[in-house]
Amino acid sequence: MLTSTTYAYIFLFVAILFEVGGTIMLPLTDGFTEYIYVIPVCVMYAISFCMLTLALRGINISMAYATWAGTGEIGRAHV
Length: 79
Prior knowledge:
The protein has helices at 4-25, 35-55, 61-78. The chain has 79 residues and is mainly alpha-helical. The radius of gyration is 14 Å and the shape is elongated. The protein starts with a helix and ends with a helix.
């Protein structure tokens, strides 16, 4: 059975995936003028922040934010 900390890390992983996906799609918005891409980018960031909020229920905020920001940067650098 999964513990609340395990779920928190799963939420954090999903938050990182959506944050990296939103950031990768950001150049496609062309200065937020291409609405076909603006809406998915905004949805991805919203899901990312919601998942990060859920992760904070089981992980300390300093650890969660550092992991979210650092892993997001590594993810964007590799893609």
